[in-house]
Structures are given as structure tokens and as C-alpha cells.
Amino acid sequence: MLSSVGLTSLYVAAARAYETEYRQRLFVDTYARSFAGDRGFALFSDLRAFSPGLSANDPHPGISIRTRFFDDALLMAVHELSLKQVVIVAAGMDARAFRLPWMDDVQLFEVDRQEIFQYKEPILLNLNARAKCVRKVVVTDLEQDWANALTKNGFDRHKPAAFLFEGLMFYLKPATVATVLETLQSLACPGSWLGMDFVEAELLNSPYAQPFLSKLRKLGCPWLFGVSNPEQFILQYGWQPRQPKIVVLGEAEANYARWASPVSSTTSSVFNHYLVSARRMNF
Hints:
The protein has 9 helices and 7 strands, in the order αααβαβαβαβαβααββ. The protein is α/β, with parallel strands linked by helices. It has a single domain (61-280), classed as Rossmann fold (3-Layer(aba) Sandwich). The protein has a 7-stranded mixed sheet, with helices on both faces. Helix 4 (96-99) links the parallel strand 1 and strand 2. Helix 1 packs across helix 2 (32-47).
């Protein structure tokens, strides 16, 4: 049985399935439809009301852009930095181990709770899925000792790695965010890469966003965390922005001709969604 937060991974899978079936698709995820199931598509339909302009089978532009952005940034980092370890934290229904062009010797660690893998693994088995890397499942909880669970599964903290936290941080309490990033400091040696996204802190208290935020609270998966200055925020945990740096979803670097209107911080009803690409600083 998936928790409320676990169900959001099915929502994202539904969004990725619609993108895969879109004519001008930004990526292909042939596993997404099976992962989403009826519950994922029902939740996507339920939340569609908060994305004006989307027709019945349209993909969610924000999720599609975010997915493609991190596909590109992750592959670029692994190639340019010669990384052999990739860690996807709160992996949910992520299928990058199966759909991206990895080198055979890359180890990809999917970190998430037991309920996620109890749902996900039988689907992959039924689809006869074959990872394009060395895929390792790490069953743990971010409020537990997830660093120890990761190292027990073969992660080497003395070698640089790519860490991806996609669509996660806004679901965490501020104290949990701090603990997670402090733990990451102990895992990521210099030369490591970080991909992460944040919503703007002001969104959480905005009257414009309250209908959507109220809906999430009723579903049991409230948004709890945002940042005002993402660069300053990650710097305090030892991460330096790198190309493509920190961009706002919908701006030129994260648009792919799919964002309907220009991003404007002067519009009171529009709030930034930050996409972060950073490198571990030397100390």
C-alpha cells in the first residue's frame, strides 16, 4: 500500500507517460504508463484543474521540462566528470536506469522506502526490464540512516558521484531538508555533482497558490519547504553552481519551447521553480 507521498510518484509517472505519447516529446519513458496505473492517471486528472490550458491527454509542461533538464544535466555531469556512481534519492517511479544511455560500469543507486520498491519491482519484472547500468535498490527512509544504507549497498563515499533529488524537497519539513543535506555532505566527496529543485519560498504563503496547496494538504502530501535564494542556500552545504547552473523553470535554459508564457518575477501570481546543477566544493 502506497502512502500519500508515495502516490505522488504515480502522478509523476502519469505525466511522463503523457509526455512519451506526445508528438513533440522531450523524452521517452516506456515504463511510465505501467508505473502510473489507474491511480496515477486519476490523480493527474484530479490535479489538472490547477494547470489551466491543459487538455485531456496533454503532458504537464513543468514536469516534462524538469525531467528533460535533469536528464541532460545528469548525463553531462557523468560524462564530463567521469563519474561512475549515480544516486537518485527518493527515486519513486524513476526509470533513468533503464532509459538513459549509460556506460556499462556505471552504478546507479535508487534510494527510497520499501513501499515504493514493493510496488515498482514486480512491474519491472513483468515488463522484463533490463537496466543499462548496474542498478542497485537501496531500501531506506530519509529520516533514518540512509547514508549507512547506501554504503552497505556498495556506494563508495571516497569516489565522486552524481546525486539527484528531483521533485522532493518541497515535501520535506525544513528540519528534514537540513538533515538530508548535512548527510549528503558526508557522502559527497569533492568532484561530485548535485541536481535538485526548489520552489520559491514565497509561494507557500501566497493567496494565489492556496487552492493548489490546500488540495495537496487534503491529499496528505503538503508542500512544506521553499527557498528565496537557492545559490546562497546550497553554498552553505558546500555546493557551487555549475553549468547549466541554477535556472528558473520556463526561462530560456529550461523551456524547450514548451512553456506557454514568459517567466516574470514581477507578476504576483507567478513563482519561481528553481532547477539546480551544482558541484561539490573543495575544502
